[in-house]
Amino acid sequence: MVNSSKTPTGKSKKGQVAVRVDSGSVKACFPRSYCNKGQIKLATGISLMDGWESKASQLQRRLQIELEDGKLDDGQGNFDLGRYQEILKEYGLQAKLRISREPATSDNQLPPKPELSLMEVWDMYCSFRRESLSETVYQLKFRGEYLRAIKKSLAEVGEQPLEVRSWLLRNYSHSTVKRILSCLSEAYRLAIKQKMTTQNLFDGLAEDINTKTRSNRTIDQNKEVENDDDVLDTSKAYTWEEAQEILKYIQSDNNRVKHYYNLIKFKFLTGCRTGEAIAIWWTDIEWNRERILLRRNYNNRLKIYKSTKNDTIRMFPMPKDGELWNLLKSIPQGEPNENIFKNKVGKAINADSLQRVWHGYEASRNKGIIPELIKLGKVKKYLPCYNTRHTFITHQIFDLGRDAAIVNTWCEHSDEMSKKHYRDIAKYATQINPELPANQQTQQQTELDLLKEQVRKQQELIEKLLEDKK
Q: Is the pTM of this model over 0.70?
C-alpha cells in the first residue's frame, strides 16, 4: 500500500490521494472531500509485480500536486478524466478508465478496506524479502517455483487454505510444500503487522508435514538435481576407464557433440560444478603460477554470474605440460573476460543443452551420449552429467590414494568442511599434482627434497673453501 501522510491504520488523511491495492488491482483513490457524491477510484495500470510500490508512490505524489493545483477539475466541478489519462501516459501507464464511486458515509470516513488476496500478500512478502535473498533464490524460488505452485493451486481449488495445502501435497514434494506453506504463514504474519490483513490463514499448516515421507510425484529426468551429499558414493560415479570411453565418444567424428568435449573433459579433470566450469574466463588461468582460479558460478536460467556456492575463490593446480594444461592450451585463447568453453556459435555453453545431449532428447531425435554408450557396452549405467564431479573425487581418493582433505579443498564439496580445510591446507594443496598417484608423487617429493639437501651441502662446502682461501 502506498499512501501519503498515513495514519497508523494505513488510511489516508482527509484531503490526501492514495495509490493502493484495492479489489485485486492498484487504484488511485481520491478523497471524498474532493467530490461530495463519494470517493472516486480509478485504475492506474500499475502491475502488482516487484517494485510496484515505488511507481505507485511516484504517481501518488504527482496526483496530489495536480489535485491541490485544481488541475483535475474540468472547470464544471467534475473530475477531469482526460487530464488523469495524460498523467498516466507520462508515467508509461495505460488503464481502462471508468469512474467508480464509494458512497459517502455519514462520518465522511473510508469504509473498511477489504482483505488482501493471497497473491497480494505473496507479492508484498516477496518485495519485503528481496534484499535478504540472493538473486538466484529470489528469482528461481520465490518468483519462480513457489509462485508457480501457488498460482496452480489457486486455479484448481481457490483460496481455501486447507484445500491449497492438500493440492500442493498431491502435486509437489513434501519438503517443497513445507517451505511454501511456511513462507505463506510468514507472509501473513508480516501483513498483520502492517495492518494490511487481520488473520493468518496459513498459521500452523506446515508444522506436521513429514519431509521424509516419500512422494508419489514423478521425476523429470530433464531437471537433474546437483547434489554434493553423496560425492564419495562410488555407485554414483563412473570408473576412470568409463570416463575415458565417454571422452573418446564425444571426440569422435561420427556424432554431433564434439564441441562439448573440452568442457566435459575439464569437468572430469577438475571435479568442478557445471556452472563453475561454464563461468571460467581466460583471466582465471594463471599460467605462470600453474593454477586455475574458480571464483564464480553461471546461472543458466537467469543468465547471470554470481559467486561460487560457498562464496570462496578456490585454486586448482594445473601442472605445466600436464593433461589439464595441454587441454586449455589447445583452445584458442580469447580476451581476459571471455568464456573459455563455448558452443558452436561462440557463446557460453548452455547447461540445459549439455544435459539434453548427455541423456538424450526425443523431440530433437538426440539419442544421448550415455544411452548410446550403454548400448555399445562402454558404460554400465546412466548417471547425470553432474556426476563427472563424483567421478573425479572418487578417482582421486580411491584410485590414486589422495588425501580426502586435499580433494575437498580442490572441489569444496561440503560447506562446513570446505571452509575449514581451505583455511588450513589451501597453500599446500596447490603444490600437489592431481594427475599423479599420491604414492608416486610422495616418492618424487622425497627425491626432490634429497636433491635440495645435496645442493645445500655443496653450497656450504663451496662457501667454506672460499673462506679458507681468504
A: no
